[in-house]
């Protein structure tokens, strides 16, 4: 059953239930409030009295008739003690009153009794509801005035004069409009809700079928608009995740291709030289040692490739168990630089170090930072050695008071440090600079060589783990500068 049918059924059932409850409540409430006299019951009593009093063939003379009528009125008054009955002749003379009144009424007194009728029939004030009945005695009209205190009348009665059937419509039409108007507005509202839900459903179906971005109206703040907004964001996130999965698949294929290429060549060389050594196809010991050196170098290269792959796997899990401690970064970098002095001299590269003498203390994971800096240095040596220069610098950037900080800076940061590695090699083309930190990406043809292109991605991961960043500035054949930025957060506020 679709939603529209359910809404229609709900409206019909609600209307019918409301009508049933309305009638039931009237009956139940009426059973508690149906006490007292009604206009109909008073009319019945009065008409019966007038009819009985008008019978003249029962007594031969007028005195007997008068006595019979008085007895009839007294008997009725005894049966209905709240009722007062008075008999008047045609000239207004009071013939008899059940309350034993003798004096005649003035005109003002009589009119006062009829003022406010018929409203007194259902009033609650201590007033008299008065009705008049008549009969004929010796062809002379006689009048019976019946009085009843308003408080003895049934308060829930309605007194409506309907002289013609069409006048009933003047009551029923407004009553019908009163009941139908909410139903019409409910149907209009439900129809609009149903239309919006259908639009939402079509969008979800289209997204499921074609993976197109959901763009639903998100202007407003009702529940459906909020749902539209969440679906818009959800579809965007899903598409981003799908794109990321596709990109990871592409990188996986690239990794397999690179592994096949980078491992096949050294394996072929190792196999060839190993067979040569095994078969003794070398001329002298010097040639044998040369072949063995090649096998050893190629084996070390393969081990380095596998180690890089292990580093990637290690970095993907490392952020969950990072071990921060306060570290003197100046001292750590000086020790690291000392490891490369001999290597740089062998490559004919000058080495410029700019590390402050004073201690620069930062909350870091020392092994991770050392790994990132070594990757930058080894990257510069591998790809920038033709420039004959390598620079390593450390700079501390101290922030002003929080009220003076530039917009966009994290107010929790005390200062940050910048570790820069510079080479003067061929550089990185502009079109590849945005991708250089992605895994399995190499900077340019001039910078390509052996390797999988994952060293810089590890640097980016280390920076991200420390809530920092890594920047690149490269001018081909001038210089290439990689800068690792590590923030130092205020005590106790490190993320």
Q: How is this structure best described in words?
A:
With 495 residues, the protein is of the alpha+beta class. Among the domains are: 39-152, Beta-Lactamase (2-Layer Sandwich), CATH 3.30.450.20; 322-489, Heat Shock Protein 90 (2-Layer Sandwich). Helices cover 52% and strands 16% of the residues. It is built from twelve helices and eleven strands. The strands form three sheets. It has a five-stranded mixed sheet. A hairpin with a 3-residue loop joins β10 and β11. α5 (165-210) packs parallel to α6 (223-279), α6 runs antiparallel to α7 (285-318) and α7 (285-318) runs parallel beside α12. It is rod-shaped and about 175 Å long.
Q: In the CATH hierarchy, what is the architecture of the domain at 322-489 at level 2?
A: 2-Layer Sandwich
The CATH topology assignment of the domain at 322-489 is Heat Shock Protein 90
Total strands: 11
Strands across the major sheet, in which order?
6-8-9-11-10
What is the secondary structure topology, with strand pairs?
Elements: H1 3-33, H2 39-53, H3 62-79, E1 84-88, E2 94-97, H4 107-114, E3 128-137, E4 140-149, H5 165-210, H6 223-279, H7 285-318, E5 325-328, H8 329-338, H9 341-346, E6 350-354, E7 361-364, H10 366-384, E8 389-398, E9 413-423, H11 430-433, H12 455-465, E10 469-475, E11 479-489
Parallel strand pairs: 6-8
Antiparallel strand pairs: 1-2, 1-4, 3-4, 5-7, 8-9, 9-11, 10-11
């Amino acid at each position: 059953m679709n939603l529209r049918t359910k809404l229609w059924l709900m409206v019909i059932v609600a209307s019918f239930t409301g009508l049933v409850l309305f009638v039931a409540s009237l009956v139940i409430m009426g059973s508690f409030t149906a006490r007292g006299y009604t206009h109909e019951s008073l009319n019945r009593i009065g008409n019966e009295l007038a009819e009985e009093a008008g019978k003249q063939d029962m007594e031969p003379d007028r005195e007997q008739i008068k006595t019979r009528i008085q007895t009839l009125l007294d008997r009725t008054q005894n049966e209905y003690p709240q009722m007062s009955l008075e008999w008047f002749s045609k000239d207004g003379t009071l013939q008899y009153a059940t309350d034993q009144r003798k004096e005649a009424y003035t005109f003002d007194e009589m009119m006062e009794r009829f003022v406010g009728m018929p409203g007194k029939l259902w009033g609650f004030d201590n007033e008299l509801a008065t009705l008049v009945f008549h009969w004929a005695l010796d062809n002379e009209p006689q009048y019976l005035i019946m009085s009843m205190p308003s408080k003895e009348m049934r308060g829930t009665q309605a007194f409506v004069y309907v002289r013609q059937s069409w006048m009933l419509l003047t009551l029923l039409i407004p009553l019908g409009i009163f009941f139908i108007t909410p139903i019409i507005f409910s149907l209009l509202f439900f129809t609009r809700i149903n239309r919006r839900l259908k639009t939402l459903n079509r969008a979800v179906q289209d997204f499921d079928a074609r993976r197109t971005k959901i763009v639903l109206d998100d202007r407003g703040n009702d529940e459906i608009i909020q749902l539209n907004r969440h679906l818009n964001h959800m579809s965007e996130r899903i598409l981003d995740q799908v794109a990321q999965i596709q990109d990871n698949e592409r990188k996986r294929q690239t990794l397999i291709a690179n592994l096949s290429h980078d491992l096949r060549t050294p394996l072929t060389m190792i196999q060839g030289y190993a067979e040569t050594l095994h078969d003794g196809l070398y001329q002298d010991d010097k040639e044998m040692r040369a072949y063995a050196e090649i096998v050893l170098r190629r084996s070390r290269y393969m081990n380095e490739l596998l180690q890089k792959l292990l580093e990637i796997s290690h970095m993907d899990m490392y952020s969950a168990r990072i071990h921060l401690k306060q570290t003197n970064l100046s001292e750590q970098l000086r020790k690291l630089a000392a490891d490369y002095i001999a290597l740089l001299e062998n490559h004919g590269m000058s080495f410029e170090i700019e590390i402050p003498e004073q201690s620069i203390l930062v909350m870091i994971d020392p092994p991770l930072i050392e790994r990132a800096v070594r990757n930058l240095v080894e990257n510069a040596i591998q790809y920038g050695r033709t420039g004959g220069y390598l620079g390593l610098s450390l700079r501390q950037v101290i922030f002003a008071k929080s009220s003076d900080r530039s917009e966009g800076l994290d107010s929790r940061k005390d200062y940050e440090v910048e570790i820069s590695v510079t080479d003067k090699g061929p550089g990185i083309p502009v079109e590849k600079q945005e991708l250089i930190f992605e895994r399995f990406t190499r900077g340019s043809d001039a910078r390509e060589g052996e390797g999988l292109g994952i060293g810089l991605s590890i640097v980016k991961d280390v920076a991200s783990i420390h809530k920092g960043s890594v920047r690149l500035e490269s001018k081909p054949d001038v210089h290439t500068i990689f800068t690792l930025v590590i923030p130092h957060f205020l005590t106790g506020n490190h993320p």
